Structure formats: C-alpha cells, structure tokens
C-alpha cells in the first residue's frame, strides 16, 4: 500500500491539485519521472459553498469549492493518495465506486462498514492502488445523502502503450448525470425517516451540475458539449443521481456502447440508453461530416415503475457544432421512452456482452460453491404508538433483502472483523434464502413488516458464489440497482416473474456475460450474478437508490482471509477515523 509519509514527498503536486484539481492530470504528465505505476496525490477540502441553480442559492457541501467535484485521472497500476480534510458540520466518508480495493477495505469508504466517518475538523488519507482495472469509475460521499453534491469522475486510463480495443477517440468527455434539490437534502431524508413517508423528490436533473433550459430560471446554466464534424468522441457517462434511473439520448445521433462499469463490452449501437445510479458507461459518439444543424439537444429523463412520486422532468444540454445563440425549445429534444417503458429497458440491457477477447477474457466461475437467493424490495415498519405515520396504511416505509432491513452499527464492521470482536456489532447469520417464501412478483403477503439487524454472510476465501436477486411486488414492483463493493460480478441471467431454479439456469450465458459492479434487478423480475470471493474484507451490497439505502436495503459479505500472505487483509492505517 506504499508509505504514508509519501504525502510530504508529493507536496508540490498535492498543492497544485488542491488549488486546481482539473489541471491535475496535465500537471502529472508534465512532472518528471511520473510514469505508469506511479503515485497521484490529491487533497479534498470538504467545505460549504454557496451555489445557485433554478434561482435558488443554497450552501452545499463541496470538494474544494467545486460542484460537481474534481476529476481524478490515473492509469491502471497507479497508486492514488487522497487526503480528505472535513471542514463541515456533517460526518463524511468517500467511496471510490467500482475500485476493487484488493485486501484494502480501509480505503473503500462506506461509513460504519469499512471505517468510522470522518468527523468535522478531522482528516483521513485514502491510499489505494488501481489493480487490473481501466475505464470510467467515479467517487462519491458515502454518508447519508451527502453524495447529492459530493461526487466526481475517476478516469482510469489504460497502461502506457496499451490503448483501447477500439479506435482511439478524438476526445474524451466525462458527463455526470445528477439531481438538484432546492431544499436541503439532509432535511428531506430526515423528515421522511421521521414521518415514515416517501421523501420529497428533486426539482431538476443535471448535466455536470447544470439543469439546462427546460427548467425555470435555468437557461444560463446549460451544459454545452462543443464538437467538430466528422470526429469520434468518447463520452464517459456516470449516473450520479440519488434516486433515479435515467434514459439518455442525443437528437439525430446514435451512440455506440463500448464499456460498462470499467469493463469492455462487445460494441453495440443505440439511439437511447438507460443508466442506473452508480453505473458508468463509455459510449462513442461519431459526428457526421456535414451536420444539418449547428446544434442538437441532449436529454435525460427518468425510468421508474414506482407507486410513489418521482421527479418526472426532462433535463437538456446542447451538442454544439458551431457557436450558436439557439436556446431550447427551438432545438427538438431526442425521443426518449416513456417513464415506465420497461420493454425499452429490457431491450437495451439484453445487448451487454463481455468483450471476452484474449487480452480481456471473461473469467466466469464455472463451478459454484454457494447458491444464494435474495429477495429485494420494500416493506414496512409499524408506526410508533405516540405518532401518526405517513407510510402505507399508516405504517412507515422500510426496505430489505430477504426481509432483513440493515441496522447501521455504531462501529465499523471491518474494524470489528479485523480485531475478531464481533459480539454486539454484527451477526453472521444473514438469511441466504427468503425466510418466508411467497409468490414474490404476485399478490404480496398480508404482513409486510421487516426484521432489523446488522447481519452478514460469511464466505471462505475463494468461494465461488451464484447470487439470484429476486424483485418483489411489496409496496409495488420496481427496479432496484444493486451495487457490490470490492468486486465485479458476471451477470449470467435475468428474467421476469419468479426465478425458476430448474428451468432458468440452463439458459444462463456463461460464455461472455457482462461484468459489472452495479446491476438493476428488473421490475417484477430477477437477475443472477456470479463472483469469486477472492478479496478478503467486509463488503457492502446495497440498492443505489439512496432512499432505499436509508430504509435499510443493504447487507454485507464477510470474506475471510486466505492461507497465503497475499490473501490476507492489510493492516489498518494509523489515521483510521474513530467513531
């Protein structure tokens, strides 16, 4: 993991990055002696900053005063050292979404899972190496709903001389899809947890923090992507929205998908794509040599089957061939599917296949040691006797996996595991099959109350796991984007209705299934994934809708050390935060 005193060695670079992180990569290339496998230093000052959108000015947490936060650029094999100083009144921690963090859960970031949060006035250094990964990932806060403002791209370039398995694009551009709330999002979720009802929804969607011209008082805050005719651009798409899967398209243009969650895929071309919170996608946009218009509209809009309220707006940005004063609506928006078009989502999702080349093989576990079935969905908690609740039939909304709603511990699970100090912290009895089987996608049971506990599934090192994630119709069937920390997994099968353990596995794709870190469980359906538990530590798995995460839709895997020295967890850093 490299020495921590290296922070002083890199002082010159760190100072530059803190002042102007977007110049960081250019600086790194200019500094002598920095090649692949070197160390990149960044400083994150978490501070309150006044930001105005939709004619509303509010003070929001930012990294280095930037919203969205700074772009981090490294190469496969490089070490990344990020010193975080927390200058706000909230606890905070940062997750490097999709980074495998081999043997090094201390750098993973989810509060109370791999670390205690960084308290106000405190600091922590995230020190990790990018091993065997290249592509688009991202970073975000992993405490309460703070990631609504605290997020940015993590670009991992291939090793020097390696290149891409497709023609090199003329230019690469990160585009982060987000959500803007006029209200204070911490107040929004705290009120919802208090009343038991669904939280208020966002006021706008954003492109790189800008809502654009479809919203009132927002045309000046429009993202413009300037392009030249007859060129190929790689858009590094990241869905950093809190609670919404999103359709995306560009009027009169097609997009060729070449990568998902920092894993190359067999290229396929679409007019519209759908991307879930937590997911990343690299797409190639080839511009025509003679565009018919100087500008075209890009747009995002939600995909959902929720029975609750949602932000049913469309955000727009501009693909600009020549400087233009044209503002929307004169630019026609791309034709995006209806908000509940599950068919369009299914047709898109079916396209994903691993590249599975000699250089990038799909190493799917062929034999399976452990088969698990997890139901994923909503539920309820009884209303306390001294209050009135706004959830279903006077209850409080909850969410669970196998009817267990995750109870946040008071100390970090990874520390408890490392010290073998489990009593009063966690139970190793997470149910590996549904405790009360029912017709999962049919009529829900009368009793929808959930259990609560800090439960984990223990796994022996190198166990091959097949996990079926089964959606339920309790409080309405909807899609759930599930994210697994510390691992990528192969998506070997999916379907609608209830998983059939006899008839569905013969239809699995074990040849070239897509490898991801975040997958949406289809609405009223199931998805099957496989992974090899070769990364020791405690790894969170959760719904990447933050509202469902707040309601308890998460669990953790406890992967034990292997027998060899390089199969054991690294010791904790000396500056690990205290709870």
Question: How is this structure best described in words?
Answer:
The chain is mainly β. The protein has 3 domains: 36-162, Cupredoxins -  blue copper proteins (Immunoglobulin-like, Sandwich); 166-354, Immunoglobulin-like (Sandwich), CATH 2.60.40.420; 370-567, Sandwich (Immunoglobulin-like). The chain has 7 helices and 32 strands. Helix 6 (413-418) links the parallel strand 22 and strand 23 (451-453). The radius of gyration is 23 Å and the shape is globular. It starts with 5 loop residues before the first helix and ends in a 20-residue tail after the last strand. Mean pLDDT is 93; it is low at 1-36.
Number of strands: 32
Q: What percentage of amino acids are in beta strands?
A: 35-45%
At the first level of CATH, what is the class of the largest domain? Mainly Beta
**Contiguous helical run count:** 7
Organism: Sorghum bicolor
Family: Belongs to the multicopper oxidase family.
Keywords: Apoplast, Copper, Lignin degradation, Metal-binding, Oxidoreductase, Repeat, Secreted, Signal
Pfam families: Cu-oxidase, Cu-oxidase_2, Cu-oxidase_3
